[in-house]
From TrEMBL:
Residues 7-67 form the HTH tetR-type domain. The keyword Hydrolase does not apply. GO terms for molecular function: DNA-binding transcription factor activity; transcription cis-regulatory region binding. SUPFAM superfamilies: Homeodomain-like (SSF46689), Tetracyclin repressor-like, C-terminal domain (SSF48498). It comes from the Bacteria. This is TetR/AcrR family transcriptional regulator. The keyword Chloroplast does not apply. InterPro entries: Homeodomain-like_sf, HTH-type_TetR-like_transc_reg, HTH_TetR, Tet_transcr_reg_TetR-rel_C_sf, TetR_C_16. Keywords: DNA-binding. Residues 30-49 bind DNA. The lineage of its organism: Bacteria, Bacillati, Actinomycetota, Actinomycetes, Pseudonocardiales.
Amino acid sequence: MTVRDAAATRQRILEHAQRQFARHGYARVTVKGVADAAGVSPNLITRYFGGKDGLFLAATRVEIPVEHSFGGDRSSLGSRLAASIVKRWFDAPGEDPLLVLQRASGERPEAAEALAAFLDKSSLEPLHRYLRDSGLDDATARSRAAAIDAFVLGVSTRRRVLRSELGDPAELQEWLSTTIQRLADG
């Protein structure tokens, strides 16, 4: 097997694992089920990921490019963040690694810790810095960032984890935009 084939096989396994973890949670997913869906032997999952826990950790690596939402004036922060959030939620609704982590956080302490650490590093802290750099004092910037973070996580949990309908994308984006902006403005 060539390196390119190994990389493609690993990626295919990850894609199937992300889908299954997002749809069924950690407990109901099996190595054999992922292997069957990916068309590989379960031994390859052990070889590439060390087993189910390693596969889960690899399938839940999350990246959110929030920095592009911070390029601009604070008066339009809500619309930029809302557009980014709605795009993420509607582009791959059942396969988002962040959704996988959210759903698994109730089952797996390491998933809850990974989600909290990710949100602190990739969402809360950059938002805090942006608000501080936009002219707010540090304490105000921190509390407004925490409010925005809690609001978005709450909406995400309610509409995605608890499997309520997301609704119309344009209406959702408008509502998120208005609410996030209110929180940013205090």
